[in-house]
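Dissemination and training. As part of the outreach component of the grant, students in the summer workshop were shown how a complex can be specified as a set of sequence lines and then modelled as a single object. The example used during the hands-on session is reproduced here so that future cohorts can follow it. Participants entered these lines:
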Amino acid sequence: MSKKMPPEYYQMLEEIQAIDFVIVELNLYLDTHPDDTAAIKQFNEATKRSMELKAEFEKKFGPLMHFGYSFSNYPFNWKDTPWPWQV
Amino acid sequence: MWYYEKKLQYPVRVSTCNPRLAKFLIEQYGGADGELAAALRYLNQRYTIPDKVVGLLNDIGTEEFAHLEMIATMVYKLTKDASPEQLRDAGLGDHYADHDRALFYHNAAGVPFTATYIQAKGDPIADLYEDIAAEEKARATYQWIIDMSDDPDLNDALKFLREREIVHSQRFREAVEILKEDRGKKKYF
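and obtained this result:
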């Protein structure tokens, strides 16, 4: 099933996807260039930004992660839709 | 340990219900050069690869599962509203008879996934060369599918995945150079 969410959901999600892509790219780059100070700085900055954006998103739309990386409301809302393929 | 994050790596949109495209896309789900084969190959090879490149295999292997989820999302969205007649006309009658609209790990021709698609040789150079080849073959497959697709929304996400194959290939090439350099050091000093 697909579920229609408020426009803000899609906008915030896309912002998170964008910053997390920066992190993945820098992570793979640093795996083969571990001494690049500037890239490490960018990696840490992007990580901080990602954590901020996710905290904001989760307050509005519920947990992004399970197993102790996100907080839950009552009732337990991790299992709420939409799942990524339903977005 | 792995954790699940409730988001796709990159947004997947499709313009219309299109089971024929889904049939082609399954190649990247359960095919020889698909995302499942890639994920399983790298995560399995990492146990016996030199420490200097374990991180890279670990991280690329993990990213491949995010790509597998994107392919699954494409197939799901392209087929969820299709009638049995539409599925049959798109060449998915054999699939429907066994699986309805459920996804299954097979290639575009319906051949089930097999572990024989992947190798772990224990020789770091041999393994990394296989990984480079795997990325290039997956890149080519994405190109062939894009060439056949008339869905601009789908192509946007497919082009993202095609570019990821190029980046992974280049990282694996760097890993080969790192190991060659290391081997040289041991020999001469």
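DSSP finds seven helices and no strands in chain B. Students were then asked to discuss how this feature might be tested experimentally.
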